[in-house]
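Q: What structure does this chain adopt?
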Amino acid sequence: MSVDEKRLRAVFRRAILVALAGGAASAAACSTKSSTNNVTGTDAAVPPSAGDAGDAAPDGKPSDPCSAYVFTPTPPDTCGDYVKFPCGLPPEIVPRNDCFLNLTDCAGICPDLHYNCHAADGYCTDAGIDAEAGALVIPDEAGAIVIDCATCPNGVGRAPAGLAPCGDVAARSMAGAYFARASHLEAASVVAFRRLREELARLGAPSELLQDARDAERDEVRHARTTARLARRFGGRYVRPSVEAVGERTLEAIALENAVEGCVGESFGALIATWQAENATDAAVRDAFATIAADETRHAALSWKLLAWSLSALDADARARVLAAADRALAALASEEDAIPSALVETAGLPTTAQRRALATTFAAEARSALAA
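A:
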């Protein structure tokens, strides 16, 4: 399972060519808060699974028991705002058969900058539904529906366990908000690689892996500074990440996180950065992401080397769990519908929905071949 930088670059080039050939359709632009938005309040309760009894009464909940309100799930989601409809979705909002809402509906219910919205886990099912009908959005026993408003487009970096949500970002433009969130994740990646290096040293990993993790940590320091400068240029403000400490983790736990965050998330992030370096209309953004893409490709190669080493040290059951987690992450990646605002497609060079889908599909196929090798 040797996936080095050269092979990753070849995979990225194939994915980009596929996206350019067949993924040129542009996604509809996504707006910020609508004037018809009736979302208010906060909630620290966990969003209940379908059939659960409901959640605790929050501070600031609207007086109308059927009014929608925003709450923070437990554990918090670093890339989403949750909106609860206590009495179910309004009749004019009809989810698609994959449980995503139309972008115009998202604009009316999501509280801040967002890129898509969909039914949260536990509120979407395909049980008993034929393939043509697709999935259904379902209420819990109290009749409530929870919608997840995605606030992260295509991040570049490795999110560490214990990372607190970025929260509200002060920005005068979508590009400023995007680069502010990017710098937040890049700075969090510094912690992720420092923690990884310390854990690998404790587990007696090869010195090559330790050095690669140290180099990646230094790279991420530069990335955080670069994206913070871009954020300031476009009217955004860097948000310092908050990462809780984690206890001593097993090799399997580290391997699971690496498979999802590194082999899938960071590898695909490197592909997106490569795309941005070639497609951003802003020259400073292109130059910045040319360097970031090269560094992130090395980090992705480290993830795959770490996967190979960790699998060789785990038993058969643990290996199966790690590979299954990677496969689930690839499936989720290929099924996402990130609707990126046109301003970010141009300035930041992000792919359109169709282009991202093509990139993700090609990458997922290549990654599965590597996992099976």
